[in-house]
Write a structure and sequence with these properties.
9-stranded mixed β-sheet; 18 strands; 25% strand; alpha/beta
């Protein structure tokens, strides 16, 4: 393992910060940032901004211009060595005359993995790998999940009171959290590919599940609906031209399915597991469609099913300083009866939105 200097670490931190700017716009590609350094000074930087657009190395080298010759390039992921929507980044680096490439991690894409580094080495470029690898893997956890497991990265999200209730015993839930927290939810929706609820939530709340930011992107809206009961008058159906709606069913009647399709929805029939859509089968289908981030907003039965099958990768919980007593818990029966069975989180962080607290963590 190379001995990294403080400057190496600082420049890679900057590359990772740049990479994060592509979140929600580059998927199913990874987020990548690059910094070009010569004689201790940054002469160029860039990040992958949009799926199908120039890669981070292209933007960084373009920013550096002719000064890139003899430089060191810090990049958060192994440079690609194949033709995709853009030419190979390895050839660009070779042509620019860089002398050293420092990478955070190897690309698990079989078209790239190790080949990018080997091409650079054969051209006489010094290659070092593994700088801040843990941070890079955390940043690109959705991309790695899709590549390694063939399914989307699952984010379980809910809002609850201080005593752990998502609604009163009558089902009233508007609003658990304040305006600032709810606005942040729209920022999250802007960055994910799809958002999933069950038919119970669709019928009870009649949600839109759109991103209400001025320049926001609407995720694909997915409803688990075994019998295709989603109302043709629901917000999800009426706005399907604005944001796509996918109804996942197991045994919905042909007539109901055809009606939903005629209204503009997509209907996907999947395998049944105990009378409900098989989540693993569905996730594999979504992975084939290159859905990278899936936000599961509930309700409690759906969240319980995802936890029960150990499919949750990340948790986002908005907690409000309210107490209501009797109510509905956020996660239904998981089958776990011992504290030792509880899902545990790591890399836990907290943020405040007005009076509300957001707790985030990765499931161990």
């Amino acid at each position: 393992m190379p001995e990294w200097t403080d400057l190496d670490i600082r420049h890679m931190h900057r590359a990772l910060k740049l990479a994060a700017k592509g979140q929600g716009r580059v998927e199913p590609n990874p987020m990548v940032g690059a910094v070009v350094v010569k004689n201790g000074k940054v002469i160029g930087e860039g990040f992958h901004q949009l799926f199908g657009g120039p890669h981070a190395e292209v933007n960084a080298i373009k920013n550096a211009g002719a000064k890139a010759k003899g430089s060191t390039v810090y990049v958060t992921l192994e440079p690609c060595n194949h033709f995709g929507k853009t030419p190979p980044c390895t050839q660009l680096l070779i042509k620019a005359g860089v002398s050293r490439v420092v990478s955070a991690m190897t690309d698990p894409d079989e078209r790239v993995s190790g080949r990018g580094f080997e091409t650079l080495k054969q051209a006489g470029i010094k290659v070092e790998n593994g700088l801040l690898e843990d941070e890079a893997r955390k940043l690109n956890a959705p991309y790695l999940t899709l590549r390694n497991q063939g399914r989307p990265f699952i984010i379980a999200k809910w809002a609850m009171t201080l005593d752990g209730q998502i609604a009163t015993f009558t089902g009233d839930s508007k609003w658990v959290t304040g305006e600032k927290a709810r606005r942040h939810v729209h920022q999250v929706r802007d960055r994910v590919d799809a958002i999933l609820i069950g038919i119970g939530t669709a019928q009870a709340d009649d949600p839109l599940l759109t991103c209400r930011l001025p320049s926001g992107r609407n995720p694909l809206r997915i409803v688990l609906d075994s019998h295709a009961r989603l109302s043709l008058n629901s917000n999800l159906v009426r706005t399907t031209q604005e944001a796509g709606t996918l109804v996942v069913t197991t045994d919905g009647s042909d007539e109901r399915c055809q009606s939903l399709e005629s209204a503009g929805c997509e209907v996907m029939k999947v395998r049944s597991r105990q009378g409900k859509p098989s989540l693993r089968y569905l996730l594999n289908r979504l992975g084939q469609r290159q859905i990278t981030n899936l936000l599961v907003e509930g309700g409690r039965q759906v969240l319980g099913a995802f936890f029960r099958e150990k499919l949750v990768d990340k948790v986002m919980v908005y907690q409000s300083p309210k107490i209501i007593g009797d109510g509905l818990s956020p996660v239904a029966e998981t089958g776990w009866h011992l504290m030792s069975q509880a899902a545990r989180l790591q890399n836990v962080t907290t943020r405040r939105f007005g009076e509300d607290l957001l707790v985030e963590g990765l499931v161990m």
